[in-house]
Amino acid sequence: MSHTPSLPASRYQRYATTMSATHLKAMQDHARQNPEEFWLEQARRIHWHCKPSKGFRGSFHGDVSIKWYEDGVLNASVCCIDRHLTTRGDQVALISHREGRPEAEQITYSMLHERVCRLANALTDLGVEKGQRVAICLPMISEAVVAMLACARIGAVHVVLFGGFSAEGIAERLMDSGAVLAITASEAKRGSKTVPFKQTMDEALLKCEQKSTVHSVLVVRTSEAAVPMLPGRDYDYHDFVDTFEPDFVPVVVSAEAPLFMLYTSGSTGKPKAVVHATGGYMVWAAYTMGMVYAQQPGDVLWCTADVAWITGHTSVVYGPLANGGTTMISDSLPNAPHAGRWLDLIDQYKVTMLFTSPTAVRAMMADGDDVVQAHSLATLRLLGVAGEPISSDVWLWYHDVIGRGKCPVVDTWWQTETAGIVLGPVPGAQPLKPGSASTPLPGLELAIANTKGQIQHNATEGSLCIAGSWPGQARTIWRDHDRFCKTYFSMVPGFYFTGDGAKRDEDGYYWITGRMDDVINVAGHRLGTAEVEDALATDHRLLESAAVGIPHPVKGQALIVFAIIRKDATTQPTEAGIKLLVADTLGRYATPETVYLVPDLPRTRSGKIVRRLLRKIASDEIDSLGDLSTLTDQDIVQILCTAVHEKK
Ligand code: 6R9
User: Fold this and answer.
1) Which residues neighbour 41 within 8 Å (Cβ) at sequence distance 6 or greater?
2) Measured from the CA of 525, which atom of ligand 1 is nearest?
3) Nearest CA to ligand 1 atom 3
4) Which residues form the AMP-dependent synthetase/ligase domain (predicted)?
5) How far away, in angstroms, is 91 Cα from ligand 1 center?
6) Among the residues of 490-601, which ranges form H helices?
7) From the centroid of its chain, how far is CA 213?
8) Residues with a CB atom less than 6 Å from ligand 1
9) Which residues contact 53 (CB under 8 A, 6 or more apart)?
């Protein structure tokens, strides 16, 4: 925990009109005393075709069942668009900036309505039905937002896939989700690199062979480059979609109908698709973004997350649009073509709220204060981060240098499974502590358990759990409810287990210490070390491997691989080859920082690899290796230390 003094709520006067400390306290009391009434009240933040009369129904015990607002009926695209048409049809809903184009596109709520309806008609024409899955694999372009909302409009379930996944990774997810249609782009530019979206999708579909259920592919042409199209399967997005009517009667669904599923990493190899339900998710997106970001007319919120992550779903699309705000997307990089590129865009598009990752803040910090000082940044009034721990010095730099000391910094802790902010300050209503994700939003009760699964009270440290459900909670893991129950509800019976460690101080503020399982967080991307090891196991020249995360000054954590080559291998795997194998299997984002080819790994007498030790060795912290007496072979430690040291 940091000893940096906290910053009083009164410092952020501009937020005083949004919510006072008294109002926040009243909400917290109401939520505790009458949760059913509290959550039904929050449900009024969105538009319902039939208003719900029930709040939560279900249990965290046994065959876990989670239902919210089950008698409510709605359509998520209506909540995000139609609802605002009479009051703010001409207000900009989406600013879409594309690097290399002179001006960003300003898409009003009316324009968004037209585009979403055309695509809803096109998808229906192609035979997509309510409940079916549609895979969306697009760069940060307006069609990505339109595609998500069009799926919602026809009651289909979107599965947004990250453009950084390999063909293998996409194929696996297409087959697992049973997607019937895919929406992709020809290619995307990332700085000087070209990302071949369509080519990767084609390869993925080839890999699926007979197992793919995808019958159609819509392709957004993002450049002049020629794209091979398969007649009868592939359609040019605009040539096809723009011919359809700009109106579509929304398909209403019951609150528990799935809105989307999203793949995320866990501590076992296979990625899992977390399923989110329409009603609860929409209330949660509106509530959490309304409490912490509280967009006012004129605010431009730029959340730099890719739509393929939960932050992209809730803080780029559903939250801001449900609340009638203006949201911005951009396909730019923070430091290409030059350092300070994102700062240019903040000034150019008068961004008032910036929401990014600690990795991006650390990268801006590394570029130096001069780059920041060369920009006005006068429109900014709120700064946010999520995705990984932010240290108090980086928090303060963000606050003092980017925010010029006048913008509150909101560090929000949440997960794909929580769908929206769980821990985060309500700016103007409570003090901010640099480096802390603050306190739970009203209606959420957090708990800290010790290693035996017992709940600890007052100031303490342990595993972070959530007592009781919240509307945005994931309902299940697609086609694997057992895994859902085991992963999240078996560690501390009756509680949702987050997988993160946390400290709670005497004021009830939480300080996240990081994952406690074998999930690492590289630049805000969750990665299971087992996924990496499974990928390496496909190279039969490798006997065994171990992947660990170690601290990295910019990315938060870096992925390090130790691999043992089989003695009988006829050819020698190289470090570069191993990196490529991981990138090909999982995606470029998972490329290991360093690979060590080693004769063995440190093991306990029962044969378990001692990862704690590998982390220390890989970070070159050889003075604090601790007790080595439980190892079968202590000499291996010295050999690994030398291997690491030689590379430094
Ligand atoms: C929103 C998102 C979830 C994991 C989570 C935790 C880490 C997220 C954080 C944070 C420290 C924060 N995490 N927010 N750690 N401080 N403010 O990132 O979802 O991709 O599912 O990752 O990210 O470890 O468990 P997701």
Assistant:
1) 30
2) 20
3) 415
4) 83-470
5) 32
6) 529-536, 575-585
7) 26
8) 264, 309-311, 386-389, 411-416, 437, 498-500, 512, 515, 521, 526
9) 40, 71
337: cis peptide before it, omega within 30°?
yes
Contact 329, 145 (CB under 8 A): yes
Q: Give the separation between CA 463 and CA 453, rounded to whole angstroms.
A: 8
**Which atom number of ligand 1 is nearest to the Cα of residue 385?**
17
Which residue in 163, 152, 159 sits closest to 186, CA to CA?
163
- d(C-alpha 563, C-alpha 560), whole Å: 10
What ipTM goes with this model? 0.99
3-state DSSP call for residue 234?
A: strand
Structure tokens belonging to residue 577: 């080859």
Q: What are phi and psi of 427, to 5 degrees?
A: -65, 140
User: Per residue in 73-111, pLDDT tens?
Assistant: 999 999 999 999 999 999 999 999 999 998 999 999 999
> What pLDDT, in 10s, does the model give residues 208-254?
988 889 999 999 999 999 999 999 999 999 999 999 999 999 999 99
Q: Can you list the positions of beta strands (E) in 204-256?
A: 216-220, 234-236, 253-254
Residue 33: strand, helix, or coil: helix
Q: Which of 120, 112, 75, 73 is nearest to 95 (CA)?
A: 112
Pocket of ligand 1, candidates 388, 409, 519: which has the most ligand atoms within 8 Å of its Cβ, to mutate? Answer: 388
Residues 6+ apart with CB under 8 A from 234: 216, 217, 218, 219
Q: 194-213: buried (b, 16+ CB within 10 Å) or exposed (e) per residue?
A: ebbbbebbbbbbebbeeebe
Token representation of residue 201: 């999708």
Bridge pairing between strands 253-254 and 455-456: unpaired
d(CA 180, CA 172): 14
Q: Which amino acid, 283?
A: V
- Burial classification of residue 562, based on how many CB atoms lie within 10 Å of its CB (0-12 exposed, 13-18 middle, 19 or more buried): buried
- Give me ligand 1 centre to Cα 58, in Å: 26
CB 518 within 8 A of CB 527: no
d(CA 177, CA 158): 10
Interval 162-194: pLDDT, tens = 999 999 999 999 999 999 999 999 999 888 889
Residue 583 CA: distances (Å) to CA of 6, 165, 262, 531: 42, 8, 21, 12
Backbone torsions φ then ψ of 302, nearest 5 degrees: -115, 105
CA 166 to chain centre: 18
- In a mutational test of the pocket of ligand 1, which residue from 309, 315, 415 has the highest number of ligand atoms less than 8 Å from its CB? 415
Rounded CA Rg of the chain = 24
